[in-house]
Amino acid sequence: MGWLRRGPRRDGEDAPRDPEFGYFSVREAALFRSTVREAFAELGLEVTVYADSVQDDGRRRFGLGNLAAVCHRDRRGPRVWPALIRRHVSLVVRTLDGPSALDTLPPDQIRAQLYPRVVNADGIDPGAFGYARTVAPGLYEILALDLPESVMMLTDEALDRLGDPAQLRARALKNLRGLPVEDHETVRDADGMCFEIVAGDSFYTASRVLDLDGLAHRVTGLPLGEHGALVALPFRHQIAFHPIRDTSIIPALGALASFAAAEYEDTPGAISPYVFWWRDGVLTQLSEHDEDHGELRIVVGDDFQELLERLIAQGPGPC
Description:
Elements: H1 26-42, E1 47-49, E2 53-56, E3 61-63, H2 65-73, H3 81-97, H4 101-104, H5 107-112, E4 114-120, E5 133-136, E6 139-146, E7 151-153, H6 156-162, H7 165-177, E8 183-188, E9 194-199, H8 212-220, E10 229-235, E11 238-243, H9 249-264, E12 275-279, E13 282-285, E14 287-290, E15 295-298, H10 302-314
Antiparallel strand pairs: 1-2, 2-3, 4-6, 5-6, 6-7, 8-9, 9-11, 10-11, 10-12, 12-13, 14-15
């Protein structure tokens, strides 16, 4: 399947691996970090390089995880890393040194560019995002301001300046529903397994889980039924789902669990490696990583087990 394609040939798996970014060899990681340092130096900033970040003289710290994943997943290989890194570093520095969009944009424009964003707990500081809404264990919904060159995740302090959080969230959700569907693919196999993938350049593609019923209606022509859907949101540019209507849920569950785990690995903007049951906007986690055996496993509660038994009794149906 196309979603399992990997990157170009680089150092073999037998080469010593970098402790922080295991998809890099030690040599590749050294090249990546030295190029990052050079990119900052070209802009007049001397930085101290750590395993997963750099820090300038003003004690501003810049994480390297997303940038490393971008480089790793680019099929063109290390020859394009300098250009990717310089573009990213230039954007980061311009954003930090320039005036805040909250000070320069009129209120109406800010609201027009406001979106909800689902993020992994590792990506936010809980002390700065006290308003964040829990979407699922380890996943939170925050508000973000979409700018031409960057995305500004809005802290408690920023929201205090903009108005009522409930009204801001309602506007953000309206903006999310108005986004176009960039790419859509139906994945099928001969055994009756199928699920839908929606992908795109938008930083809010995975966040469309907040409007999954609307998204499903747009790409399949049908709303989600009473049983909801299976859904995976491995990283910010991708969401996959399977409407639950019949026993086709059984092969779809295993396939989506594998899909989520594979697509989550080594991606920029990673969100979750698990598959969830979406029902009336509530997400219930259905897969997890077995730490003892290093394997992915499906874990279902009583409600989902009861649903499976009812669907089996109902008999098979089309995907």
